[in-house]
Write a structure and sequence with these properties.
Number of helices: 7
Bound molecules: glycinamide ribonucleotide
Oligomer: single chain
CATH topology: Rossmann fold
Number of strands: 7
Largest sheet: 7 strands, mixed
Radius of gyration: 16 Å
Shape: globular
Length: about 190
């Protein structure tokens, strides 16, 4: 059995989509959902899906070994960031090298880095009059959005598209590809 832990800070639609993708599988289990945000929508989704939630604060994440400890104790094979907004500390990257992946809502290396998340990304893309955006799935290292790229998919942007339109197109790509790419990574190991 391969075990996944998801980290999410917000609404959690990707987290839910990943859980649903693997729900009928007996070889893959979404074992835990971690969040740093007590108000995150993902908590309600996790309760509905009956997946245990681990809440942690900034101090615990950056200044203790508690999170890597839980991941190791639970035998987690892959850490999946899905709308997780904190920079992962080196301590965690060291424990889970190439076992931690993220999805970014743009075509990296463009529109990545500190402060580039969620709607800020789509606003920047529209303001720059890009004709394409998309998703990037990549390994996580100790820098924002800089780990090796695993997969990208693109969508077209029309001149009249708003940031909300782009967000919708990007979310569609995320739902289509993220679970499948996770599955492929797990099956390769
Ligand atoms: C997703 O679009 C994800 O790519 C993005 O946040 C959204 C979360 O949506 N992540 C980042 O911007 C990370 N830099 P969700 O909570 O509905 O899954």
């Amino acid at each position: 059995m391969k075990r996944i832990a998801i980290f999410a800070s917000g609404s959690g639609t990707n987290a839910e989509n990943i859980c649903e993708y693997f729900a009928d599988r007996n070889d893959v289990d979404v074992s835990l959902i971690f969040t740093n945000n007590p108000m995150a929508g993902v908590i309600k989704r996790a309760l509905k899906l009956q997946i245990p939630v681990v809440f942690f604060d900034k101090k615990t994440f950056y200044h203790t070994g508690k999170i890597p400890q839980i991941l190791q104790n639970e035998g987690i094979d892959l850490v999946v960031l899905a709308g997780f907004m904190m920079l992962v500390p080196p301590m965690l990257v060291e424990v889970f090298p190439t076992k931690m992946i993220n999805i970014h809502p743009a075509l990296l290396p463009k529109y990545g880095g500190k402060g580039m998340y969620g709607h800020f990304v789509h606003e920047a893309v529209v303001n720059a009059r890009e004709t394409q955006s998309g998703i990037t799935i990549h390994y996580v290292n100790e820098h924002y959005d800089e780990g090796d790229i695993i997969f990208q998919a693109t969508c077209n942007i029309n001149p009249a598209d708003t940031p909300e339109d782009v967000a919708r197109k990007v979310h569609r790509l995320e739902y289509e590809h993220y679970p499948r790419v996770i599955d492929e990574i797990l099956m390769r190991r």
